[in-house]
Design brief:
The complex is a heterodimer of chains A (about 260) and B (about 280). Chain A is about 40% helix and about 25% strand. Chain A has eight helices and nine strands. Classes of the chains: A alpha/beta (about 260), B mainly alpha (about 280).
């Protein structure tokens, strides 16, 4: 069994919003293994994006700790694929993909080599001099993927990267993601609100409960890799898993709605 | 941006081979109508000032407008020609131009830097924004005596006067531009390990550029205003001085030449600034 890459211990996060404390995450303890594709799912407002930002170091925990096992000091510990708007609009596709590499002051030849490679892998070579405004949503997320993969991080963090795409584009990008990921299996933490997506991509699925976000359960996806949408859809095991996750989520969402309509009344 | 498909011409030819005359005739008629519309608009644009000048000329010649105060445009043109030959016009224009350009640079560069700092760092904002809010409403012309005490009566004090008037709108708009940058871009920069300098030059500056350029446009307009006023009260050269001294010595055609010069100068300056802005924010 692979060793732990991310150790999260008794993590809590509290926000002060309009002079009121809001508990985003409460006492989360979770280990994510080296090379694991870990999907995190939960109703909206359960703090799953916050969890990702805490792992990325963009925010600090209120209590508890997150330990990342960094192996190679020359590689960045994490790189994030942001939700739809993460591509920098004033840089061309090429400059966006090279951004992380430039920030790490890699040798020029290496920057060119890696940028070209990931432009190729994501099918963006023809668009390298285009600005993001000229691209479709799917293309923009390809840029975002290429930028994160190019810096070769030890852990890839993805914050609902395909949630704003139409379904067909989403399927294409999910398969592309799996293809690129399978070349060099990195640890991935993937936040999503789509059960199908979590089953297709994840080795394990972490379920969070709604406000405050608590660890509800962890499901192991019993499906072999490489995975394709067609085979996953027809596999009875994935249908069983879908139902059990949905039952959990449904009660959570209904509970959250009940709570919010009660507080609004 | 995209390479065209080499098959494209062949495919197109095949499509055109099918008789489609009517389509072609329609599109030609459409193109013709569009061109006519453009020509009409151009004619109207040119007609307005020409008509105005014609009426002015006629009224002034007939004595309905007092030709001492409103000399006919033909006389103004003659004065312009004479001043060009003497070289006096160019001298005034050149000195104003240098003052505006230097003053503009002297005001906008610190304005951009201070604006970026205010937009990026809360302590700087707390330190500087009340100060700026209090100083900004003072009309720069009210500061001219103080500026002359500090910087003398030479060229330096003119540059400082322009710079002061340009600084505030540029600084405030730059800060607003930084504030308008989507927070996710700041997270992207942090996540990919941007240094302080890279954050400044690759995120804050380009992100603020659209709003920043609005500040530069405002600064340009105010610079023009300030230079003419300053040259009227505290100079013996420049376009403002030309206008004021021509008025005082009752050389009214020369005064109008001065007005024409400042109009053209302002127009060209703002045009260049707009072009530069569009070039730098092509990504929008």
């Amino acid at each position: 069994m692979a060793r732990n890459k991310i150790e999260i211990r008794h993590l809590s996060k509290v926000y002060l919003r309009n002079h009121r404390l809001t508990q985003a995450l409460q006492d989360i303890t979770l280990n994510i293994r080296e090379g694991e594709f870990c999907a995190i799912i939960g109703p909206s407002g359960c703090g799953k994006s916050t969890l990702l930002r805490l792992i990325a170091g963009l925010q600090q925990p209120s209590a508890g700790e997150i330990v990342l096992q960094q192996e190679d000091p020359n590689r960045p510990p994490t790189a994030m694929v942001f939700q739809e708007q993460g591509v920098l609009p004033w840089m061309t596709v090429e400059e966006n993909v090279a951004f992380g590499l430039r920030m790490r002051h890699l040798p020029k030849a290496e920057i060119v080599r890696r940028t070209d490679g990931y432009l190729q892998k994501t099918g963006l070579t023809a668009f390298r001099h285009a600005y993001p405004k000229e691209l479709s949503g799917g293309m923009k997320q390809r840029v975002s993927l290429a930028r994160a993969f190019a810096v070769d991080p030890e852990i890839l963090l993805m914050d609902e990267p395909f949630s704003a795409l139409d379904e067909q584009n989403k399927f294409l990008l999910q398969e592309e993601l799996l293809r690129i990921w399978s070349e060099k299996k990195r640890t991935v933490v993937y936040v999503t609100h789509s059960i199908d997506e979590a089953i297709l991509l994840g080795d394990r699925i972490v379920l969070l409960s709604a406000s405050p976000g608590r660890l509800a359960s962890i499901e192991t996806v019993p499906l072999p890799r490489p995975r394709h949408i067609e085979t996953i859809r027809t596999d009875p095991r994935s249908a069983d898993l879908f139902l059990s996750i949905w039952q959990h989520l449904r009660s959570q969402v209904q509970h959250a709605q009940g709570a919010s309509s009660a507080s609004n009344a | 941006m995209l390479k065209t498909n080499p098959l494209q011409p062949a495919l197109q030819k095949e499509a055109e081979a099918q008789p489609n005359r009517q389509q072609e005739r329609l599109s030609r008629a459409e193109a013709l109508r569009e061109r006519q519309e453009r020509h009409l608009q151009l004619a109207l644009t040119l007609a307005a000032p020409l008509l105005l000048l014609g009426i002015w000329e006629a009224l002034s010649e007939m004595g309905i407008l007092d030709p001492r105060f409103f000399p006919p445009p033909s006389r103004i043109l003659m004065a312009l020609w004479q001043m060009l030959l003497e070289g006096s016009l160019w001298q005034h224009v050149r000195i104003s131009l240098i003052r505006i350009l230097l003053g503009f640079l002297l005001g906008s560069v610190p304005g951009i830097l201070v604006g970026l700092a205010i937009g990026l760092w809360k302590p700087v904002r707390a330190l500087l924004s009340p100060l700026i809010a209090v100083l900004m409403p003072i009309p720069t012309m009210a500061l001219v005596p103080l500026i002359m005490i500090l910087f003398g009566i030479g060229e330096l004090s003119k540059w400082v006067t322009i710079a002061t008037s340009v600084f505030f709108p540029v600084a405030i708009n730059t800060a607003a531009g930084v504030a308008s940058i989507d927070a996710v871009y700041l997270e992207v920069a942090r996540n990919f390990g941007a240094s302080r300098l890279a954050f400044f030059t690759r995120i804050a500056l380009p992100g603020a550029l659209p709003v920043l350029f609005e500040g530069l446009q405002m600064g340009e307009a105010i610079a023009l205003l300030t230079i003419v006023a300053a040259e009227m009260v505290a100079a013996n050269s420049g376009i403002g001085y030309l206008i004021w001294s021509s008025y005082k010595t009752f050389q009214i055609p020369q005064m109008f030449v001065g007005l024409l010069a400042i109009a053209i100068l302002g127009y060209v300056f703002s045009l260049l600034l707009r072009m530069l802005g569009r070039q730098l924010t092509r990504w929008r």
